[in-house]
Amino acid sequence: MPEELPKLIQAAYRTRRARARIILDDCLARLPHYRHLPDSLLAEVRHSILHHLGVLYRITLQTGRPLTDQDLEYSRETARRRAAQGVPLGDFLTFFLVGLTRAWEHLIAEAGDDPHLRDRLLERVSAVISNQTQLMTALTEAYVEERERRSRFREQDLDDFFQLLLAEDAVPNLLETRAPALGIGLDEPRTVAIFGPPGTGAAIAPEDLRRRLAARLLGADVWVGRSREGFVALLPDAPDPKALGAAADGLLGVEVRVGVGRSGSDIEGLRRSAHEALRALRIGISLPGSQRVVLYEAVAILDLIGVDSSRAEEFMRSVLGPLAAADAPRIYLETLRQLCAHNHSLKLAAAALSVHPHTLSYRLRQMRRRFGVDLGDAEQRLRVQLALLILDARSPTGQRVTRAGIP
Fold first, then answer.
1. Strands, DSSP E only, in 121-245?
2. pTM above 0.85, yes or no
3. What is the pLDDT of residues 185-234, one digit of tens each?
4. Which range marks the domain in which residue 204 is found?
């Protein structure tokens, strides 16, 4: 009778390929992730099942000894490979739970009604549980360590990619090589956003912002990294500005600004979008009272005239003269704004200002005489319009007067 248990274990070992097929079919039915794996990977999985069945039969059941580090090395390497392949941890571990269940059911069935053989099998239960616990611990630790290691490298790779995207002299071929490795497709339009100023969210990980953005953008693909300018995010085409503002509010604080470029669908398009996002961010930071989320398309003309430069300031003051001063009569500035807004139609501008056209003509003569602002030709009108754009962009919110405040 003592020889019956070794015979049972040896018979089970010889037919382990049949058990492996049953285990694989069972897991494929339970786990959708594995159903989509290529044949080469499924062959790897079959080999792993056969190996671990061999460990169960030859070591745990036959000898009853604990597993050694050498016994577990293949298992740890398998866990590292599955982590690298992106297999969910729960799905991966399910194979080992199902495998033990099916193998044990087969042994009990083969023991039949023989009470002595069943008792001998039950004596191995404690060794089975102990070694299974050892195995699951080793698998989990190796898997988690590999995912953490890859996460650190991926985070650095994303940072490098975005810094290259913003660099003036980046080589396009290098970016085209790195994008697919990060899972970034270049065949559909995407938008770059930069969350700044620099130093924003120093204690926040890029992954925290990525999750927040993905949730706000209904699960869309989002990539986030750090650059010298702040967090850089690669987003779907035309993201909702309110969603971007809400993500920043809840995570990065009220001082953050978000610059958003126009969408692009290849490396050159993404580089343009990134530089536009940076310009939008810088303009938003430099201008008092600017909105939380600054779209480049809304400030493109301000970028064109260099609104955040000293030259723009000099131009504005040379055109508007004393009207550019903080204590200048705002009635005249609002008059100029309405004239520009209504294509210099006296009738329409007067209606917008709630004054008679004769009153508006009088104001224009006063501005020409007192401040040297003459709207007599088209070039001067353009200069005044650009100067007003600079002045309004650089002035705190609320400095402009309302219609009700004009006499």
1. 190-196, 223-227, 230-236
2. no
3. 888 899 999 998 867 767 788 989 999 999 999 878 999 999 988 999 99
4. 185-304
